[in-house]
Amino acid sequence: MNPNLMLWPLVIHALVTLALYIPMSRARISTVKHGKVKGGVYKLNQGEPEESLRFSNAIRNQNESGVIFYAGVLSAYASHNVGYLLLLLAWAFVIVKTVHVYVHVTTNNLRHRRPVFTVAYFLLIALWVVFAIQLTGLL
Asked: What is the pTM of this model?
């Protein structure tokens, strides 16, 4: 297997996260332009309106779990422990986190968002467990 395939989930996750900055910025500009808030609200993000806060929160969530995801994928890549199972887990994580972003910035319904987050959480754990087992040489 080409180990570089393992890097594509990182690229997709990064692009999804970076894409969130566009609607967040538009929402922030719009709220100031339409007098909903003063621009100073965004200095410390205190009192940020829901229109932009949902994007800010989605970005924060992607970055929080993304750091652990990137560390796992890059560790597997650097240690030459890339395999089909890790590749499958990496893609599954990115797909589920993309669904999580969609729910987060559209309905933001916790009844839908929480289970998607939980699946991503367990996929991330599985990625790290499989990587750890591969480091031992047992898998």
From this structure: 0.94
